[in-house]
Specification:
single chain, mainly beta, 11-stranded parallel β-sheet, 22 strands
C-alpha cells in the first residue's frame, strides 16, 4: 500500500487487520500541516516504512500521528521534518519482534515510543517482544518518552530491551524506562544545552547497562537501576563553558556487581553536582 498526499487539516484513519499470514505494508509520504493520522496494523508481518535514504516520511507542522502494531514482526521506520508535531508509536499486545526507527528534525515535537507499554499506558500481557528503538533528534524543545517492558518469567527467554538515542539540540527532555526480566541496554548521546535526561532500568533478570554521553551546559542526568542481577553505568558529561551540570545515579540491586564510571569536564568555579548511591 502506497500513501501520498499534500494537504492541510486532513484526518485519516487506516485499519489494517489480517487473519491469514501475509505482510501488512504501508509506504507513506505526507506533506502538509495540521493533519491527523491513525494507523492500526493488527496481526501478521506488519511494517510501515521510511528511512533508509530519508526520502519518505512526514513533512510539516502541527501534525498528530498515532501508529499501532499488534502482533508478529512489527517494523516502522519513520522520518519527521517539522515543528510542533505529536507522534505516538505502540508495538506489542503480546510480543513479537518490535524495532521502530525514528528520525526527527525540528522543534517542539513530542515523540512517544511504547514497546509492550508501561509506564503507565499499562498493557504488557507478559510481552515477548524483541524490542529495539533507534531515535535521532535534531532540534530544540523536543520531548522523547520511551517505555520498553517484558514481564515474562525469569527462566523464560522473553525479549530484550535495547534503545539508542542520538540528540543534537537544546532544552530537550528525555525519559526512558526499561522494565522486565531480560537485558536492559541503553545508549544515549546528546550534544546541546539545558537538556534533561531521566532513565529507569528495573527488573529481576538480565544485566542493566546504561551508556550516556552529554556535551553542553546546564544539562541534568538522572540514572536509576534497580532489581536483581548486575548493573553498570558509564556517564560522560562536559560543561566546558562554565555552567554546571548535575548527575545523579542510583544503583539498587541485589548482591550482584554494581559498577559506575564518570568522565566529567567542569569549569564552573562553584563546581558541578554528582550524587552516586549504590546499595543492595
Amino acid at each position: 500500500m502506497d500513501i501520498w498526499w499534500a494537504s492541510a487539516a486532513t484526518t485519516l484513519l487506516l485499519l489494517i487487520n489480517t487473519t491469514t499470514s501475509n505482510a501488512n505494508e504501508i509506504y507513506m509520504y505526507q506533506v502538509g500541516d495540521n493533519n491527523a493520522l491513525t494507523i492500526l496494523q493488527e496481526g501478521d508481518d506488519n511494517y510501515i516504512s521510511g528511512i533508509p535514504g530519508a526520502t519518505k516520511g512526514i513533512e510539516g507542522d502541527g501534525n498528530t500521528v498515532d501508529m499501532v502494531q499488534k502482533g508478529q514482526y512489527h517494523g516502522v521506520q519513520g522520518m519527521l521534518d517539522g515543528d510542533s508535531n505529536n507522534m505516538d508509536f505502540y508495538q506489542g499486545g503480546g510480543g513479537d519482534s518490535g524495532m521502530i526507527t525514528a528520525s526527527v528534525t525540528g522543534d517542539n515535537n513530542d515523540l512517544v515510543i511504547w514497546q509492550g507499554k508501561h509506564p503507565d499506558g499499562t498493557v504488557d500481557l507478559a510481552e515477548g517482544g524483541d524490542h529495539t528503538a533507534t531515535v535521532t533528534i535534531t532540534g530544540d524543545y523536543n520531548d522523547l518518552k520511551a517505555a520498553q517492558t517484558d514481564q515474562g518469567q525469569i527462566n523464560q527467554t522473553y525479549g530484550r530491551h535495547e534503545l539508542t538515542a542520538t540528540i543534537s539540540g537544546n532544552s530537550n527532555d528525555v525519559e526512558i524506562t526499561q522494565r522486565g526480566n531480560q537485558k536492559h541496554l541503553l545508549d544515549i548521546d546528546i550534544s546541546g544545552t539545558g537538556n534533561d535526561v531521566t532513565t529507569y532500568q528495573r527488573g529481576n533478570g538480565g544485566q542493566k547497562t546504561a551508556d550516556i554521553e552529554v556535551a553542553g551546559n546546564y544539562n541534568v542526568i538522572d540514572v536509576n537501576q534497580r532489581g536483581m542481577n548486575s548493573a553498570s553505568a558509564s556517564i560522560s558529561v562536559e560543561s566546558i563553558y562554565g555552567p554546571a551540570y548535575n548527575v545523579t545515579l542510583s544503583q539498587q540491586t541485589d548482591t550482584s556487581a554494581k559498577s559506575f564510571s564518570l568522565t566529567g569536564v567542569c569549569t564552573n568555579p562553584n563546581g558541578c553536582s554528582v550524587n552516586v548511591q549504590q546499595h543492595n
